[in-house]
Amino acid sequence: MYTVTLIPGDGIGPEITSVVVEIFEHLKAPISWEVVDAGETVIDKYGTPLPDYVIDSIKRNKVALKGPITTPIGKGFRSVNVTLREKLNLYANLRPIKSLAGLNTKYNNVDLVVVRENTEGLYKGIEYKIDNAACAVRVITKNASEKIAQFAFKYVKENNRKKVTAVHKANILKITDGLFLDCTKKAANEYPEIEYEEKIVDNMSMQLVLNPEKYDVIVAPNLYGDILSDLAAGLIGGLGLAPGANIGEDVAIFEAVHGSAPDIANKGIANPIALLRSSIMLLDYLKLNELAKKLEDAISETVKYIDCLTPDLGGKGNTESMKNKIISFLD
Ligand code: ATP
Ligand code: MG
Asked: 56, 84, 274, 323: which sits with the fewest CB atoms below 10 Å from its CB?
């Protein structure tokens, strides 16, 4: 039996985390959840959206499944997501983007992975004002860049993939992105059997829309990785389908790429697949590969039934009908 920290989160978070909990009961997954609250709902009580007991629970259990947590724009507390990644040194953000066969989307042949540096870049949040100017400091270190580059190549090797594309803007940001590229080049030299290429981020954005099937594993500094993973999610049918994992030395937090989607919260129409796919990554991480496969197959079957799907996928259903369909393929 594994104990896993579960953070329901804000917005649609509780609606989709409860789907995972119910589906894991049907899977008979050997997991007991330790539920801890973080986010908007605890600010009044604890004076912070990220109380220490949340960090303690994740440190103790080493594995967590997290619903999205709202980050207010322009004011208030620092992003809980960013703080967690920093405090637990979850240096790699792994975001597999794979088309679901049977779902009618713009592309049906996407199978790529965004490996996003997760601890620095512009997400250090170092900003200041001088008179009428506002500045942000973008920190790129050799240490974090080497780690994410190594992670990407190791991932390719362990998962029988073929190619790494390093994304940058080193023509403009010669020193910072230059350092990032030095580190990806160095890793590429250590893995001569893996194909390696570099793409400038603007061109990469166009290439991904034109020929997504040409890309395999994309490694990028924090902000480019964030933007490209939302773009890539759009290629396969939207944010409701894209999972992610934040991985450190011995701790991992699994969460969807999407945010708390306040525009659709409490309407019962949130797509649970992105978080379910994140929970499949969690099962694989715990080496419960058979259960992972079973859930993956159930989702692949479910998306063929357009009527039961959530509106973001063009369906007439809701979270509940989707959950029930998935369960019908598990029992
Ligand atoms: P964050 O800053 O936390 O990344 P965001 O501003 O990028 O958040 P999201 O919360 O990810 O925004 O939502 C972007 C859009 O995608 C919204 O219109 C939202 O309704 C939609 N969306 C996100 N997740 C889902 C989901 N699971 N099911 C259906 N629609 C979703
Ligand atoms: Mg976002």
From this structure: 56
